[in-house]
Amino acid sequence: MSRPTRVLGFSWPVLIGLATLAVPRVVLHDLGVIEEGSFVNGLFVFVPPVCWIAAVLWKRPHRPFATVMVIGLIYGVLLALGHQLLWGIAFGEETPALGGELAGTDPATQETALRTVAAISSVVTGTLVGVATGALAVLLCRLVPAPQAANGNC
């Protein structure tokens, strides 16, 4: 058994697979297929973290908070990659630009700066989703009895 599996309760492919459940929303949103605030968007926002919690409740890893936080971090990296790959499609001709005193900066420099900030923001967002979901998972691990097949760690 690898160290991540011992500590987090899941192998890396499973952790990545769980994080990937949240990627369709990134793609559909950036392509303009789903809109913020819609019911469908809400499903794409909340179902993946619910699946993360369900997996933790089923498997009962030793450190449920760390497990879900890592899933959120992986999701953040995937979120950043998705936004970077779909940048041109998401913004089209209306590429964002810096304002104020930085408005006269070279457009390539502006784009680099904005893409960098967007990537960092995505990783932070994914990690915060993991932290919030992990906290809820810990609480539920304490409240919900472990299934018979689980090892009852959390």
Secondary-structure map with pairings?
Blueprint: H1 3-8, H2 12-20, H3 23-30, H4 39-59, H5 64-85, H6 87-91, H7 107-143
Helix pairs in contact: 2-5, 3-5, 4-7, 5-7
Keywords: Membrane, Transmembrane, Transmembrane helix
Transmembrane segments: 38-58, 65-86, 117-141
Summarize it:
The chain is mostly helical and 154 residues long.
Descriptive overview:
Keywords: Membrane, Transmembrane, Transmembrane helix. The chain crosses the membrane at residues 38-58, 65-86, 117-141. It is a single chain. With 154 residues, this protein is an all-alpha fold. It has one domain. 70% of the residues lie in helices and 0% in strands. It has helices at residues 3-8, 12-20, 23-30, 39-59, 64-85, 87-91, 107-143. The protein is elongated.
Query: Alpha-carbon distance between the termini?
Result: 19 Å
Shape: elongated
Overall mean pLDDT: 89
Domain count: the total is 1
- Strand share of the residues? under 5%
List how many beta strands DSSP finds: 0
* Number of discrete helical segments: 7
Spell out the helices and strands N to C.
Answer: HHHHHHH
**Sheet of most strands:** none
The Rg value, from CA coordinates, equals 18 Å
Helix content: over 70%
- Helix vs. strand class: mainly alpha
Low-confidence stretches at least 5 residues in length (pLDDT < 50)?
A: none
